[in-house]
Amino acid sequence: MTGDDFRDDIAQIEARIEALRDARERCRKISVASKIVLLAGTVLAALTLLTILPFYPSTFFGALAAMLGGAVLLGSNKTTWEQTDEALEKAEAQRRDMIGRIELRLVGEERPTLH
Asked: Contact at 8 Å (CB) between 59 and 74?
């Protein structure tokens, strides 16, 4: 088979790979944000429990909510990240396989002439 037969398929796979890489980057950003929220909630709750900060129920329960929300978001995002990485690896393997099946022509190789 020639490269022309696979060109459209490879282009579609490369577009999917690009979309998966964008999704993985979003997962990385969400992971960083959830870790920051989790850490901020933990620090705020610890400072309140150590009486370094005065106890205000709204602040304390807000810190607990941040801790729980950050932990849940981090766990959920981890699963999404793993699924995205798995799909990305499969798409890249599929692209490598398709490129490997193309009959490539070496530069300088004699081309058949029509005259």
From this structure: no
Per-residue pLDDT of the chain (115 residues; tens, 9 = 90+): 555 667 888 889 999 999 999 999 999 999 999 999 999 999 999 999 999 999 999 999 999 999 999 999 999 999 999 999 999 999 999 998 888 887 767 777 666 666 6
Instruction: Provide the 3-class DSSP secondary structure of residue 110.
Output: coil
Residues 98/9, Cβ–Cβ less than 8 Å: yes
pTM: 0.74
Contact between 101 and 13 under an 8 Å Cβ cutoff? The reply is no
**Does residue 39 lie in a domain region?**
yes
- Residue-range definition of the domain harbouring residue 43: 3-100
- Specify the amino acid at residue 80: T
Half-sphere exposure of 38 (CA within 13 A, CB side): 14
Q: Which amino acid is at 54?
A: P
- Domains of the chain: total: 1
